[in-house]
Specification:
This protein is mainly α. 70% of the residues lie in helices and 0% in strands. The protein contains six helices and no strands.
């Protein structure tokens, strides 16, 4: 992979796509001239749903999910290491769980009582701190795959585009 030829993610997608097509050709060839050896099949690969979904869209969605999962995991570990699990729990309860559709966002009044904040404003400030921490962790995850800060911003825009579909 060479930087001047494009993103590593695009290169990896092309390699995987070529591999899948190669395996499909082998499978179709075996059907035309079956051998006595056991067949390997594409079932070993992830099933790609048919229909309007393009393989590249599925690949990009999986990339986005992995990137977010890694950023969330890093944030949770950072909160544990710094003794600030309250920030993780606030972010998880106000942003992550509602985004995933598991629960409604925790009301600020509940956060005030649970974490003994003086006011909903203080709880809101803690959430802002948690969001900044997440953004920093997300940037670090993306930075591991690109070379420049401009590319980090570009990848984050791409991440938002993929997840908005």
């Amino acid at each position: 992979a060479r930087q001047e030829k494009g993103r590593f993610r695009s290169f990896l997608f092309k390699v995987l796509k070529n591999y899948a097509f190669s395996e499909l050709r082998k499978q179709q060839a075996r059907k035309r001239a079956p051998a006595n050896s056991p067949e390997s099949s594409l079932e070993e690969l992830h099933n790609i749903p048919s229909g309007d979904t393009l393989p590249e869209d599925l690949y990009n969605l999986e990339w986005a999910r992995h990137t977010l999962a890694e950023a969330l995991d890093r944030m949770r570990r950072e909160c544990e290491e710094k003794g600030r699990l309250d920030l993780w729990e606030i972010f998880d309860g106000r942003v992550v769980q509602p985004m995933l559709g598991f629960t409604n966002a925790l009301p600020y009044e509940a956060l005030v009582q649970k974490y003994r904040f003086e006011s909903p404003t203080q709880a809101s400030n803690a959430l802002i701190t948690a969001k900044r921490m997440f953004r920093r962790n997300l940037e670090e995850v993306v930075r591991d795959t690109v070379e420049t800060d401009a590319q980090v911003e570009e990848e984050i825009r791409e991440l938002k585009r993929v997840l908005s579909k």
